[in-house]
Amino acid sequence: MTQYLYYRSNLPAMVFLILSGYAITAVAGAYPEKNIEFIVGYAPGGGYSDVAQALAPFIEKHLPRKVNVVVRHMEGAGSAIAANYLQKAKPDGYTIGIYNLAGLAPTQLVRKVSYDLNEVTWLARLSVDNVVAVVNVESPYKSILDFKKQDKPMYLMSTRGLADNNTINAAVTFAKLGVKWKPLNHDGTVKAILAVMRGDADILWSTYESVRQYIESKDLRPILFYDTKRSLEFPDVPIPSELGMPDLDESMNSHRLLGAPPKLPPDVRAVLETAIRQAIEDRGFHEALHRMKRTAEYLNGRQAERVVRDSLRNFQAYTDVIKQLLGDANRN
Any idea what the CATH number is for the domain that residue 157 is in? Predict the structure, then answer.
């Protein structure tokens, strides 16, 4: 009888706990309930746009509920406009974006911006694209060290603008080598590449995937490859550490990261991380990447956070060079 009275007296509390637990589960299980906006900080037709468009339907496929993942382009300021938008968006899981770490990290260190990469909720690293310095196949410069001879008052570097992350990579490398240069700016990657192929410029820094076809066609020749080991495709090309610049081996490479606004709830983050991981591992997505001659190198959200911290720390050593470069960009 006593036991019966105990259960009876505690029945309201027990019912409350059971219903509360059900409510929490129901709320967590309700996500997503509407379309998810996928922000790209560049114009349609570029590498970031192509990868995002290819990935979006596979994220949809692996979400627990059927919603659309809608790619929205928000180009400008080297993708800083998109990063600012994502920083201020509501952290409810309905806004995610693709980040160009190599461009946004140095900009954050030397300019007043509205975004903070330390606060972003990182969901994954999608890929990393190695940077390469290339010259015309008939160029007299066979090695990056040949530029130290400074046989011209200023070497012409083909660029996509002074604030472009590849230009930052180039400026840091030439600063370490003591090489003087000036930019030949273009409004697109293809135009920048063609300038070197025509002989209008002496050298170009680019992501490998952007110039791969021109290296394979023997129009361009790589003279420096950024990685911890030499490329299998051109094993005779040195990496920075072999030339006395070990800190540049990886810090200059272009990491494509997926993130969401700060303070994303853990349960929503878990759903997104799982869907993104499964999307990147999906055979269909890999087939799409293969058609674009691109690859994926997945890291989870926590690992992506470490990549961001390392990148900010590495770029910190070159703030003077970056400040001068971006200052020149503002004046031009």
Answer: 3.40.190.10
Q: What is the largest CA-CA distance in the chain?
A: 101
Q: How far apart, in Å, are the Cα atoms of 19 and each of 28, 32, 75, 266? A: 14, 22, 47, 22
Assess contact for 125 and 303: CB atoms under 8 A.
Answer: yes
Query: Quick one: 154 and 57 in the same domain?
Result: no
- Residue 73: give its domain's CATH number: 3.40.190.150
Is 137 found in the same domain as 124?
no
The pTM of the full predicted model, rounded to 2 decimals, is 0.77
Tell me the per-residue pLDDT of 244-271, one tens digit each, with 9 for 90 and over. 999 888 877 889 999 999 999 999 999 9
Residue/partner pairs of 319-322 with CB below 8 Å, 24 or more apart: 319/106, 319/109, 319/110, 321/171, 321/172, 321/175, 322/106, 322/109, 322/110, 322/168, 322/171, 322/172
pLDDT per residue as tens digits for the range 194-220? 999 999 999 999 989 889 999 999 999
| 1 in a structural domain | no
